Amino acid sequence: MRLSLVPPLDPSAYAFAHRLRTRFAETDAMGVVHHSSYLLYMEEARVAWLRTLGHHYQSVRDDGVEFAVLEAYVRYRSALSFDEEVDVHLGIGKVTRATFQVGYLLTVDGDARATAVTVHGCVTRDGRAARMPAWLAEVADLGTTL
After folding, report:
1. Measured distance between the N- and C-terminal CA atoms of the chain, rounded to whole angstroms
2. Phi and psi of 52, rounded to 5°?
3. Which of 105, 99, 87, 84 is nearest to 136 (CA)?
4. Main-chain phi, psi angles of 136, to 5 degrees
5. What is the strand order of the sheet 16-21 is part of?
6. What pLDDT was estimated at residue 144?
7. Whose CA is closest to 46, among 18, 22, 72, 73?
8. Any alpha helices (H) in the chain, and if so which ranges?
9. Which of 15, 36, 37, 120 could be cross-linked to 26 through a Cys-Cys bond (beta carbons 3.0 to 4.6 Å apart)?
């Protein structure tokens, strides 16, 4: 297990936030968002975060690198419901030569609904381990880590 990050409950601890709205198709008969949708929300926020860093995910892929998800952990605190605006707060955690961790806090109107961590491995298109791009290590070195 590579996961070692404990995501804070304070939104100000995170360097980035992405807002989205829950969709009806993601809910069950009671209007509660299915647990698997949280992973999709985190992915959407990660891709938006990379874009703000000037590294659209497609440009990362064009450089021959993929950020494979190696581990994912979600702690569900309170259910999300249909049509809620969710802020997905994101911060980078530990970065090694080939992996990095991302911490998340999902909130609605400031209320913590979930915390999560994903661990990503830097790999080539054929799935072999690759060295982390220098720019990602620099982001972690700028003091934006959780």
Report:
1. 19
2. -70, -25
3. 99
4. -70, -40
5. 16-21, 85-95, 99-108, 111-123, 66-76
6. 57
7. 18
8. 37-52, 57-62, 134-139
9. 37
Q: Are strands 16-21 and 66-76 parallel, antiparallel or unpaired?
A: unpaired
pLDDT of residue 136: 87
Is-contact 68 121, C-beta < 8 A?
A: yes
Q: For residue 75, list its beta bridge partners.
A: 115
Compute the Cα dihedral for 145, 51, 35, 129 and give only its sign.
Answer: negative
Q: Is 28 a catalytic residue?
A: yes
Mean pLDDT of successive 10-residue segments in the chain (146 residues)? 86 96 95 96 97 92 93 97 97 90 97 97 92 85 65
Catalytic residue among 28, 63, 83, 141: 28
Alpha-carbon span 106 to 114, nearest angstrom: 5
